[in-house]
Amino acid sequence: MEIRRIKSEPDSSNFIYQLNNIEFCPAFHVPATKLENATKSKFRVTADICLIDSVEQNRLLMVFSAETSKGSWHYVTSDIAEQIPARNVWYKTEFVFSLPVEPKNETVIKSYIWNIDKSNVLIDNFKIEIAKQTKNSL
Questions:
Q1: What is the DSSP code string of 54-117?
Q2: What is the SS3 assignment for 40?
Q3: Could you tell me how far CA 16 lies from the centroid of its own chain?
Q4: For 9-43, b where at least 16 C-beta lie within 10 A, e where not — what string?
Q5: DSSP tag of 104
Q6: What SS3 class is residue 118?
Q7: How far separated are the first and last CA of the chain, in Å rounded?
Q8: 7-59 pLDDT, tens digit each
Q9: Using an 8 Å Cβ cutoff, are 82 and 68 in contact?
Q10: Fewer CB atoms inside 10 A, N or C side of the chain?
Q11: CA atoms within 13 A on the CB side of 132
Q12: pLDDT tens per residue, range 113-136
């Protein structure tokens, strides 16, 4: 898979992704063994996104999954385009996910963007935060 970096900093860790003709990217993979009480955790994925092309409903998705070598046992998607009212403008997006049951040790928690139509999309500041939920706040 080729990722086009259109802005790069000297340390090369800060760049904008251009998803043009790319279906899956960027991605985070977190082993369940790194989490304590995963069902009490919330996973917040944030990104600044700019749609260059028009995107139809449910064709640009933020995906959250829990997988083992046998496949995915939990899978949730959110329509990114619902948070972006206009093209060619940067919007801050946020998605919050949780696990329904405590994962087995071999589980890997994944979050990624699924660009089904391979539309031209710019993504910056893509990050995931994992926090334990206390009462009603994250």
A1: ---TTSEEEEEEEEETTEEEEEEEEEGGGG--STTS-EEEEEEE--SSPPPTT-EEEEEEEETT
A2: helix
A3: 14
A4: eeeeeeebbbbeebeebeebebebeebeebeebeb
A5: P
A6: coil
A7: 34
A8: 434 444 456 778 888 888 878 888 988 888 888 888 999 999 999 999 999 99
A9: no
A10: N
A11: 4
A12: 999 999 999 999 888 888 876 665
Question: What is the spatial distance between Cα 42 and Cα 57, in angstroms, rounded to a whole number?
Answer: 26
Residue type at 98 in one-letter notation:
S
**Which tokens go with 70?**
């046998």
Quote the tokens at residue 50: 């700019």
Q: What are the backbone angles phi and psi of residue 107, rounded to the nearest 5°?
A: -70, 140
What residue has token string 């860790």? 13
State how far the Cα of 130 lies from the Cα of 99, in Å rounded to an integer.
12
Partners of 96 in the β-ladder: 44
What is the DSSP code string of 12-34? SS-EEEEESS--EEEEEEEEGGG
pTM of the model: 0.81
CA 131, CA 138: separation in Å to the nearest integer?
6
